Each structure stands twice: as structure tokens, then as C-alpha cells.
Amino acid sequence: MIEWRTPSCAAPGRLPVQVSLSLVLLGVTAFWALPGRAETNSGIYLKTESFEHDPGWEAYNNHVQPARVPVIVQDFGYCAAGADGQTGGAIGGKFTRASKPAYYAKANGSKSLQDELSASGTFRLTSTSGNSGIFFGWFNSHQRPGSGRAVGSFGMDFDGEHGGARLAVRMISHSNKSCGTFITPFIPGKFRPTPIRNDGTRYKWDMAYDPKANDGKGRFTFRIQGDSPKPEEFEGKTFSVDLPGGFKEDGAAFDHFGLMNAMKPGGRMTAYFSDLVCDGQAEDLMKDPNWEGSGNRANYNETDPVGAHNFGFSPETSFAGGAKGEVGGKFWRSGPFAYYGDNVGHLSLSQPLEASGKVVLLVGAPDSDMYFGWFNSTNHTLPAGGKKVAPVPIFLGVHVGGPTRVGHYFQPAYSLENGIKKSSKTGPVLTPGKTFEWTLRYEPVTRKSSGVLRVSLGGESTSLAVVKPDSWQSLGLDRFGLFTSPIGGQMVEVYFDDLRYTASP
Asked: Per DSSP, what are the bridge partners of residue 78?
């Protein structure tokens, strides 16, 4: 039998439950009232939180005040003949990599992945600095700050260092899936040269997209040639990228063609683009083309410096839907380890755990992620094996992140005290700006078998086996909430609301 008891002293949002040992042995559970384990003196329960008021969760490094706030200077647009040191007009100038999007571009109605696209022209870089970056091509002008690369775009991504720049050509769908290729050589973590010269060398380029190629899946091509007497190996070659199945159907809406800064705080770059032809129409740059500018002539303090986490209780927002009040914000994959979590007593891998709620991803920059679920609030400061390591707490829950070809998974993940860390290789995918309902269920580890962690998002679900650690009974989970990833990278902005989760008195 299941016995429901609601004492007069019960805290709001708590549903105490006691379940007879006979049903526990049968493995029977109830979604709204989780059964306690026989070895515990008091039952676990399902707690609710709608964030209509400050929940009073524990905060640790979640609102970081940066020691230095960078000054952002954007000064680009139309350059009259002679202004850039060359004959003929150009568009370009001085760009600063910043969270806030800035662009100078031609409004072109609405192009999509069903349309043929083509462009050609020349460009010159005259100065670059570390961590600088710009984009040139087709893009959607409605961008959230901190997105890194423009969501819904097709064109050239320049990444600058002091000696020059790297170049890649990418297409990014409206749901933040990405495909593309490096034009300059690139081996992650090993070989990242910057062969695009910053001495004014003029590069001629052309790119095109054919939605009917690749058996109707779509294909884009790119070619570049500099005027240096010693060309690089990549110059003069035609690069071709086939869109993966379903990418074209995922869609993108391009309402502008032109220049945009890369949207992560960084360095400065000076670049000019000339001799432009877009979709068969030549641009006359001997006179002002009167393209649209947004934030391209500006001077201000950076609002989201790298590593400055800004998440927790958000009383005035309702991104995840419903009334005002939710939890979430901006999580950097860099900076100090940080969390915001509710004290849920003492839970372990030997107990069944459940959670549910709503989630919305607003920003999912490349190389960004965060974690959500039950975790240990103390062991992240402890060394492993006598060596200092990046702080990763004992954890059981959800990982928000993924490779750029996918966007951001909402997938089961866990981390144990012996260094075991694992997440599902696949999972449901968050679409930026769309609110999803989700569930998380954990079937516990026993002395003889592994556990199972199941996650659903919308109508899609996946599961992950949880291996039995050596000290599975002692692993303590004392918080439920959000925490950051210690690996360097970019920013994710995500919000949760209407939560239900397992807690212990």
C-alpha cells in the first residue's frame, strides 16, 4: 500500500510520502511522490518551485564582478575612395570582437536555404590582434548578444591573432546547427596557423550555394586567391561542402548581406571589402551605398566580459514562459567554478530520483555548455589523487552543450568521485528561443547492477547507464540546481521554470 500523509507543518511545495517495503521490492514508484529507500529513516519527497519569489538557493560565484571591463570601439561602415589607403570605395574599418552584435549590411529581403546564393569580391586585412574576429556574408540581423557566431548565417569567419588571421566558411541554420570547412589549415589544439596576411595583401574570393546540388540536400563552394608573389597552398583551390541530410529543411532566414563582428569579447581587427557582387548585382562603392548600420559606430564598456557568470534567481524575466520569475542566466565555459542550487539534504545513487520542468535556451555559442541536476556542493574544491584538477563535482543530471554540427544537446550526464565522467553521445536538441517541457528520471545503482538515467525533452528521450562506483553508498548529492563547466570556451544563456525535483528532509 501507499500511505499519503500531509502534516500541518509540511513546507509549501513538499509532498511527504511513505511507501511500504513490499512495494519498494516490487520496484513501484509514483511520479508525484517518490518512494523512500528502506535504509533511510525518513522518506524522500518531490519538491516544487515556481520562482514566484526568491527561493533562497545557495549561490557560489554565480554573479562575477570582473576585475577589468574592456572598452568596445566599433568604427566600421562605408569608406569613401582613398579613405582606406587604396583607390575606390570599400566597406569596412575597425572592428572589436564583443558580445553585443554590430553590423553594416545591405538589407536583401529574406533569403533562405531554398534559394541560390552567390557573391564575390576582394578583401584586405591591415591590422589584427589576438582573439579578434569578423564575419562577412548573409545573416539574420536578429541576434542575441553573446552568440559567438551569427545564428542563421552563411559566409566567411575570420579569427585574428597578432600575426594574421585564420579563415573558415560556415553555414549555420536557424536552430544553431553548423556545417562548413576551414580554408586555412587547422588541427584543433595542435596546428592553428594564421596565413591570411594582415599587411594589406588583397585577396580575391567567390562563394556560392546551390540548394539542388548533393541530391537536393544542398552544397556550397568557396575559392580564394591572394596577390602575394608567394601564394599559400589553399589559394586557388575550390572548397566544397555538402550539407548533411535534414540541414536544408532545418532552414535559415537571411535578411542582410555584409559585415558583422564576432560576438564574444576579444581583440580588434581592421579590414576592408571591395569589388562586391551579391546574387548577380554589382555594388557601386564609388558612392555611399547607404547600407544599414547597427552598433557599427559605437564606444562603450563591454556588458558581458569573458568569465563573468551572471545567473541565479531572475525575478523580472519569464523567458521559459508563464508569470515573471525563473532561474538561469549566463554561464561561461571559463572563469571560476560557479553554482546556484537548493539544499536537498542528503541523497545518493542508491535512491530513485526524478525532476521535471520547463527550459528555454536563448544563447548557445560555439564551445559553450552548463550542467543541471543533483550535485555535491563540497567536493569540487578537493584535489584528485593529490593533484589539482578542474573542479567537477559529483553530479547526476543533464548536460546542456554539444558539437557545433548539432547545436546544444539536452542529454543525461554524470560525474563520480573517482574521476568517472560520462554523458550520452546523443540526445534531444534545444532550439534557441523555444520553450520545452522536460523530465529526468534515475533508476538507482545497486550492489549488483548499474543504474539508468533517462531524459526527455518535448517528445524525444534518451538514456544513459550509470556505472557502479567503488563507494556507491557514500556518494552524497546535497544540492539541486545549476553549475558551470570548468573548460575554457564561450557562453550559454538558459532559463528554467516550474521545477519539481527529489529532495530529502
From this structure: 91
- Give every CB contact of residue 249 below 8 A, 6+ residues apart in sequence: none
What DSSP element (H or E) covers 248? helix 247-250
Burial 265-284 (b: 16+ CB within 10 A, else e): bbbbbbbbbbbbebeeeebe
For the chain (505 residues), the mean pLDDT of every run of 10, in chain order, is: 32 38 34 36 84 98 93 96 72 98 96 98 97 98 97 98 98 97 89 94 98 98 96 97 97 98 98 97 95 98 96 98 96 92 94 97 96 88 45 85 94 80 86 97 88 95 86 76 90 98 96
Phi, psi of 381 (to 5 degrees): -95, -5
Whether residue 395 sits in one domain with residue 249 = no
Domain span including residue 173: 71-301
Residues 6 or more apart whose CB falls under 8 angstroms from that of 187 comprise: none
CA 265 to the chain's CA centroid:
15
CA distance 416 to 399: 15
Picking from 492, 496, 505, 411, the residue whose alpha carbon sits closest to that of residue 51 is: 496
Query: Which residue intervals of 251-305 are DSSP H helices?
Result: none
Q: Report which secondary-structure segment, H or E, holds 482.
A: strand 477-484
Q: Strand pairing of 268-278 and 421-423? A: unpaired
C-beta separation of 239 from 102 below 8 A: no
* Number of domains making up the chain: 2
In this structure, which amino acid lies at residue 418?
A: N
How far from each other are the two terminal CA atoms of the chain, in whole angstroms? 22
Q: What is the rounded distance in angstroms from the CA atom of residue 146 to the CA atom of residue 265? A: 8
Is the pTM above the cut of 0.70? yes
Tell me if 288 is assigned to some domain.
Answer: yes
CB 93 within 8 A of CB 79: yes
* Rounded Cα distance, 318 and 498, in Å: 11
Assigned domain for 264 exists = yes
Instruction: Mark whether 130 and 257 lie in a shared domain.
Output: yes
The verdict on residue 29 lying in a domain is no
CATH (domain of 100): 2.60.120.200
Name 348's Cβ contacts closer than 8 Å, sequence gap at least 6: 472, 473, 474, 475, 476, 477
